[in-house]
Amino acid sequence: MASLLVGCAGQATEQDADASARRSRGREGTGDGSSSDSSASANSGRTLGRSVPVRLRIPAIGVDTPVMGLGLARDGTVEVPPITADDRAGWYRHSPTPGQVGPSVILGHVTVGAFGDGVFRRLGELRRGDRIVARRQDGSSAEFTVGAVRTVAKADFPADQVYGDVDRPELRLITCGGPREGQEYRDNVIVFASLGPAAP
Question: Which residues are registered as beta bridge partners of 55?
Answer without folding.
Answer: 66, 135
